[in-house]
Design goal:
CATH superfamily of the largest domain in chain A: RNA polymerase sigma factor, region 2, helix turn helix motif
Largest interface: A-B, 46 and 28 residues
Radius of gyration of chain A: 20 Å
Shape of chain A: elongated
Number of domains of chain B: 2
Shape of chain B: flat
Oligomer: heterodimer
CATH topology of the largest domain in chain A: Rna Polymerase Sigma Factor, Chain: A
Radius of gyration of chain B: 32 Å
Helix content of chain B: 55-70%
Largest sheet of chain A: none
Helix content of chain A: over 70%
Structural class of chain A: mainly alpha
Chain lengths: 185, 147
Amino acid sequence: MGPGVDALAIEAAAAEREECFSAFVGSHRERARRLAWRLVGGDEAAAEDVTQDAFVKAYQALGNFRGDASLETWFYRILVRQAHNYRRWRAVRDVWNRTWAEDLPDSSAEILGDPGLRQRIAQALARLSHRQREAFILVHLEGFTVQECAELLGKPLGTVKSHLHRALTTLRIELADLQELIGDA
Amino acid sequence: MTSDHESKLLNSEEKEFVQCLATHYTPSPMTLAQQVVFDRALEERIAHRAHPFFFRPIAVITAACAALLLWFTVPHQSTEVLQGEKQPGTVAVTRGNTTPPESEEELLTYAYYDPDFYGDENDEGEEEGFLPDEYEALVSAFALPDV
């Protein structure tokens, strides 16, 4: 095989890779953005940023992907990590600026339509530990199985189940009034 | 990836609660225009980060230069203390007077304050002034040994 043939093969492989990646982005864009949105606490711009960062990282590391896990699990693991990093960075920024208490309305505030409701849910989720929050969002809100969630978080199955149970218990207490309001409506 | 809900984990009430959260805590879906913008931005980001290694040495060299500059400009107080030498240009800051005065004369006195010449106002209370405020606070809070 001559160098010209090699170059053609590399070009073809690169083109195929681009095509596969575009298809992957097309089919997972919406879900990835929704998951990121939920993980970062309902911030549209941050969700888009985190999603794009995850796609870029996945693209750059595509050559290292060995196929031990499914491509989707691998990608969503990157996304969850990106969202976690974003939250950590934001927490530091918020402490620095001392704006957290000013930005978030009181948790006992009246629910006024969807934005208020979202805010309440976001606040309740924010009070969970990050593992509990991630497990709850992945399994109960995004429909991943517990097994997939365990693979994504790199935690044993039992640990994830424990996180899920604790998260649900805490959220039901935190959002008890919300449950009643929705039940009445 | 399956979208099968983990129904076995939840009873009917919990299912309803979780369903309610999933319904209300979700972003509005992207429009076609937003999808196009998203894809373009993603392409730009990928293209922009295609040569990250080109910029890394520049960043490392800049950081190293800044560190060197800082090293040579900031006086090394710990070395001075070890050598036991008095530097003429060092600013003496006493506990009772930490804000610089406004008049030029007082400012010069403040800047070139020499405790050997003027007498240190903290001479009598040297033991109190020897430790930083934080340590004194800890001593009082936790009854630490007075070093």
